[in-house]
Amino acid sequence: MGSLCDYLDKGASLGRDAPCLVEGGRTLTYGDVVDLSHRVAGGLARDGVAPGAKVGVLSANSAVAFACVFGIARRGAVWCPINPRNEAAENQALLELFDCEALLFHPAYAEMVEAFDVRVKVRLDELDGWLGDPGGAAGLVDDLAMLVGTGGTTGLPKGVMLTSRNLETMTALTLMGYPFEGRPSYLALAPLTHAAGVLCFPVMTRGGRIVVMPKPDVGAFIALIERERITHTFLPPTLIYMLLGHEALDATDLSSLQCFWYGAAPMSTSRLEEALTRIGPVMAQLFGQTEAPMMVSMLPPAEHFEADGSVAVGRLASAGRPAPLVTVAIMDPESGAVLAAGERGEIVVRSSLVMAGYYKNPEATAAASQHGWHHTGDIGYLDEDGYLFIVDRLKDMIITGGFNVYSAEVEQALMAHPAVRDCAVVGLPDDKWGERVTAVIEPGADVSPDELVTFVKARIGSVKAPKQIELWPELPRSKVGKVLKADIRAQLLE
Question: Which terms does the record give in the GO molecular function aspect (predicted)?
Fold first, then answer.
């Protein structure tokens, strides 16, 4: 696929009248979206937005906003998803970083956009009056398809340059590695500015239907799976935990589901086992990052089970096996030596999945690609069967009493307790231990810190068990729902 609009055109070739984007009572067919994309390209051309220019889209989940992405691609411009959950200053900084010439935005963000210094601004509710004549189509410049901001949980975000080749590799791996029977129906509750958006591309190659949820609502999500006969969807673990706690789940017909992806954060193995029983044998893990989108490794539904049909309990803590077009190694972060199976080090990647680099940031690009590999910043190991286990972020490892303790392992032990809704483990300075293992718990029921310490000691021993446990009503999270350990550490130090 040479351009993002090729995914749309492939779907349209399987039937222009088939539903493409569904939101509420409105359905846009493949033909509707193709025609709209030509007119968006025409509007951009008329306003002097050249091929290769950067165009932002600022909107919560919206069928029309997502349709405009294909118009940007048809013009040969670069799609820059702008997260509506960011503060205005963050988004202004992103637009400046990306050199955005144009911004298409939902009217809900009109006040925010007023202050933005962007040459062309188009409100989505005034789109009809702005659209141009078809004829603005042009080829990609330098193969750059997307500019995406990194999470920004540590300082200023960087601009990740994703090419059409990166996204084609991701799409090919998705279609290669997970079940797709017939025309898929994909439910997008998670933000289309992130993982949920790029997962639309493989769905479109099969002429599939994308059901867009404008705002997160777990009850509505459950109802839509049954009503729309959803086959594919994606949620981060936090929302899956909410799903498992919803009273409507067990009474809902989920038999249409083929593939329920989870990723973006580690998932509790005990909750995953519960999901395999209550949601069905359809859970499917993916591991990637903005710089290597989605499919570094994969654990398709079948691999959650042994040959005899029992749950493969030991495998549930893994991130699956490296994808077929991806080479993964474990590297000593100091020497650059590649380590043997079972040894822990930094997860490094080689693949056409890996980004072209960070936009206008050669230093960061060089740092991320030392020794000829892309450095993920995650610590992990490969077992003898080739399964990848992620044990921590490099910066989150705790050294206590001379021992390396990986926060993810302690978090898994805590999450096995039924009273723990979510948790985060960090290291704090300690005169005796160097760092003490400290856990912050978001409880789902009454529980005491002493009870949790005893529970964890029985599972992983006293060295790794928290020396300090705090109970907080809610963990601080980023705009995309990731737990902010730096904020937790800072609050605890105060």
Answer: ligase activity, forming carbon-sulfur bonds
